[in-house]
Write a structure and sequence with these properties.
Layout (H helix, E strand, L loop, with lengths): L4 E5 L2 E6 L8 E3 L4 E3 L5 E10 L12 H13 L15 E9 L8 E8 L10 E8 L5 E8 L5 E4 L4 E4 L4 E10 L12 E6 L4 H15 L4 E5 L2 E5 L7 H8 L3 E3 L5 E5 L4 E5 L3 E2 L2 E5 L2 E7 L2 E3 L10 E3 L2 E7 L5 E3 L6 H10 L4 H13 L3 E2 L1 E4 L1
Parallel strand pairs: 2-18, 17-27
Antiparallel strand pairs: 1-2, 3-16, 4-13, 5-6, 5-8, 6-7, 7-12, 8-9, 9-12, 10-11, 13-15, 14-15, 17-18, 19-26, 20-21, 21-24, 22-23, 24-25
Length: 370
């Protein structure tokens, strides 16, 4: 029985996801691999936000804001030596951005702005011209503009309400690229395709798909996370070749996996998750899994082989109670979760049962707890 439903339980969200067999789960090559050398670069800068409505940094707790503001005004020709500046309408911030691959001079990128002082909110502020540097301490972009803040901070005499993070915001297209990263992609004689989720089966299928498309042995599986592509036997530039192969359909091998996110209260489990013979007692809940394989034999004097067919059953009930729910044979963990839900098992108890089954070796799946 294939389950296609979303079950909401108290603080937990149990997602029983039905997935097609691994041989039928197809996606594009570009969605499962990265090309070595084609990458983004992180940028960071220190700047000042002005125009705040009295929600900026205080001099006592953030003296560097006053120093930075004084230095900036002097560079603009304003003499503020000896002046007592109280920049409660300004805030010191860190500005971060990601420089995309092959970004060119004059193109724009998004930036994120975060307060590093005791400012209450950046709402209504404007970021002053801020250079953004890479790991090599070179300036690659310059940011400036009005900040968009999604958080809210409302304060009255006897109450205060905060929603989201008002001390962080963003500037869409707020930085302009001033320096390109030199990289001659078309001079490459080979490409290295790195799988985002290393897997022997998926890597082998990528090799077969590329070789089948060109009718020659041009792709070589190095390990479960890497496939090498020899460009010398293929006509066209590396850019053109990559454009041709990145949309090839690839069958992705999806492992059986369960993810428990305790922060957001979410449990996600795949349909391929299976369980072995096991009995569980949790509180007043009793669970018993029984496997009764059936042997199918050919008729006398007939040609054929004996086949063992799996047959499983799960019994879930409450100890001391005659109310017992029987699930169908050949059940999966998804159906077990549904049975627990029918008996009113709490989400936290369900997560504990899954952990215990994995520790006992009865749960055949990767368990990831975040």
């Amino acid at each position: 029985m294939m389950l296609r439903k979303l079950i909401i339980l108290a603080g937990f969200c149990l997602c029983a996801l039905s997935q097609a067999p691994a041989t039928e789960a197809q996606t594009r090559l570009r969605d499962v691999v990265d090309v070595e050398g084609v990458r983004q670069n992180d940028l960071i800068g220190y700047g000042i936000v002005v125009g705040l409505n009295g929600t900026g940094d205080t001099v006592r707790n953030s003296p560097y804001t006053e120093d930075t503001l004084t230095y900036m005004l002097e560079r603009l020709g304003v003499n503020v030596q000896g002046e007592d500046i109280k920049p409660n309408n300004a805030a010191a911030v860190l500005v971060t951005a990601t420089l995309p691959s092959f970004a060119r001079n004059g193109s724009t990128i998004d930036v994120s702005v975060s307060s590093i002082g005791d400012a209450k909110s950046l709402e209504g502020g404007t970021l002053i011209l801020t250079p953004l540097k890479g790991a090599d301490n070179e300036v690659y972009a310059v940011a400036q503009g009005s900040i968009i803040v999604s958080g809210l901070d409302v304060q009255a005499q006897a109450a205060r309400e905060t929603r989201g993070t008002p001390t962080a915001g963003a500037i869409p297209n707020g930085a302009r690229v001033e320096q390109e990263i030199g990289y001659d992609f078309n001079r490459r004689e080979s490409l290295v395709l790195a799988l985002r989720d290393p897997d022997f089966t998926t890597a082998a299928r990528i090799e077969d798909v590329i070789n089948g498309a060109y009718g020659a042995q041009v792709a070589f599986m190095r390990d479960p996370g890497t496939v090498d592509l020899d460009l010398r036997g293929i006509q066209g530039s590396p850019s053109r070749i990559l454009a041709d192969i990145e949309n090839l359909p690839v069958s992705v091998s999806v492992p059986a996996r369960i993810v428990i996110d305790e922060k957001s209260g979410t449990i996600v489990l795949g349909e391929d998750v299976t369980i072995s013979k096991v009995a569980i007692a949790q509180g007043n809940i009793s669970i018993k899994v029984v496997e009764s394989p059936v042997v199918s034999q050919p008729n006398p004097f007939a040609r054929g082989e004996s086949i063992t067919l799996p047959r499983s059953s799960i019994t879930i009930g409450q100890t001391g109670d005659n109310n017992i729910a029987m699930l169908e044979p050949n059940v999966t963990l998804s159906e077990l979760i549904s049975g627990l839900n029918a008996l009113g098992v709490t989400p936290q108890e369900t997560a504990d049962i899954i952990r215990t089954m994995k520790a006992a070796g009865a749960l055949h799946a990767d368990l990831i707890i975040r």
